[in-house]
Amino acid sequence: MVSRRRQPSENVDVCVVGAGPAGALVAARLAEQGYKVVVLDAGPRFNPEDRLKRQERALRPAYDRPAVWDGDPKRDAHTASGEWFYPLNHARVKGIGGSTLHWQGMVMRLHQDDFASASERGAGVDWPIEYEDLQPYYAEAEQELGVAGGMDNPYAPPREGPFPMAPFEPSYSDSLFAEACAELGIDMHSVPNARNSEPYDGRSECVAYGTCQPVCPSGAKYDATVHIERAESHGATVIDRAPVQRLDHGSESVEAAVYVTPEGERHRQKAEMFVVACGGVETPRLLLLSESEQYPNGLANSSGLVGKYFMDHLFAGTGGVLDEPTRQNHVGFLTSGSHQFYDDADEDVGPFKLEFFNYAGPSPVELALSGDDWGDDLLGRLGEEYGNHVAVGGLVEQLPREDSYIGLDREQTDSHGNPVPDVHWNVGERALQTIERANEVQERILRELGAEITWQAGPDSTGPAYHHMGTTRMGTNPAESVVDPTLQTHDLANCWLVGSSVFPTGGAMNPTLTIAALAVRAADSLAEAL
Q1: What's the average model confidence in pLDDT over 443-470?
Q2: Where in this chain does the record put each Glucose-methanol-choline oxidoreductase C-terminal domain (predicted)?
Q3: pLDDT tens-digit map of 394-445
Q4: In Å, what is the CA distance from 227 to each residue of 146, 204, 232, 527?
Q5: What DSSP string describes 5-21?
Q6: What are the start-end ranges of the E strands in 18-158?
């Protein structure tokens, strides 16, 4: 039910902390089975009718990305003490829907070797599950999100059937890249997208606004409000602006989630089971804030690994200009990529994927809003600066490192007086060597295309993809992991951690489909426990 009341509910089966994709999927699946579910989220419930206004805000250079979804510097305060600066608030949303409100929407499955990195590549660790264990849940997740994709990727892991929707057609700039890649023997293929290529699940097909990241006004791109609304339609209670301060607990189980309302009231939501689905930063932070005599180093932290092994994907990119039209920004998302080099990974060079950008260079709207010229002068500048840009991007794996972690900065507090998260991000040489390898391939493609290379994101200028992973890793040994393969914590009988924080390694694929598959699998585990 859509609720504006903020008092705790009675006789609750499951309390879910976090209304992003992981929490929303678990809540919907359990509510559909008749369980009484309460969802608590730190951020607001955004009005879908405001999305066109948010789109306009995103286009105007006076606003940065956090402003599009009402970022709050005090609420979202953090520090970054690692060797690599981490701009956490550049790309995160607190609110109903979470990061899917502003994500790009690419949804690939991890490859088989990603689950056995130590065994197959000699680097990182093995997952306690195999690809085959997750394969049926990947299929369910694709149905739940609504994925448009093709069967043309010869490097993808085995599938059990086609995607729910047909793929998007290649863009005009894809056709330019295709000629160059054919000459070089590089395979291109379609990219699975969690956006509708046709009407699906009561939502419209993509209408090509082109502002997918950071806002889709049409609802064609999936976001987690889909499953929050489904959970509410089956009786779940969802409370926004209810940041959980700590998890009260005994020695073997969680007793209540303590949350604060906008009016400053403090409440305790009791439940039989608890699911923490706050992402790779806020999940370990909440556990660390829940320290007690039983758990002096943080809840569920007998291993000492809560917050450790923070990972992200690194960006590798090369761009330039052509002496012909490229029609960039006609499509606001990726339609073609290449996984050809992904499984060449070893202990020295990690997996990486290539992305052929449809949105290289500024759009006409961005150019028009960023200058002071008008009329013929503006048209002249548009003719000079728009229409001939190309770029190839890529994601690169970062291995888990114990000295890359999420901790607490006890010298700085948020709007509720809690220590803020400290992102201590360290990358490692293997990731930097992988970026060099990706750049080499990207340069070959652009040179074959006849482009003048004008920029490159290499080892010295790379940045994060804002995929927070690894801080409550999954494993079978309680001394070396935080959750078991079902995502139940080793230390607490009634607490599950769901989301990318459980990833033992990150691979180089966007994580949301794996998050969704693990969430569906965890919901089954929870139902069995209930």
Answers
A1: 97
A2: 400-519
A3: 999 999 999 999 999 999 999 999 999 999 999 999 999 999 999 999 999 9
A4: 12, 16, 8, 17
A5: --SPPSS-SEEEE--SH
A6: 37-40
